[in-house]
Amino acid sequence: MESPKLWLQDDGQPLSCQEKLRVLDENWQEVQEILHDAFEDAVLMGVSEQGMRAHLTDLVASLQSPHQGNKA
After folding, report:
1. 37-57 as b/e, with b when 16 or more CB fall inside 10 Å?
2. How confident is the model at residue 71 (pLDDT cuts 50, 70, 90)?
3. Which of 20, 38, 46, 59 has its CA 20 to 30 A from that of 66?
């Protein structure tokens, strides 16, 4: 899966800073590789694909914003 073409800010405007876009793209690639490896390992060790997908979905859903508590 390719990195998203647009990274939107809270106000809905696309992020335009090239350095930030480069970092986001690099992070996206790293996360994708790590998740792929973890998923593949789990399935090869006998974990159901559906179960592993559910665990990964739960993991993403549990991520906390660094701005938590700062928004009105």
Report:
1. eebeebeeeeeeeeebeeeee
2. low
3. 38
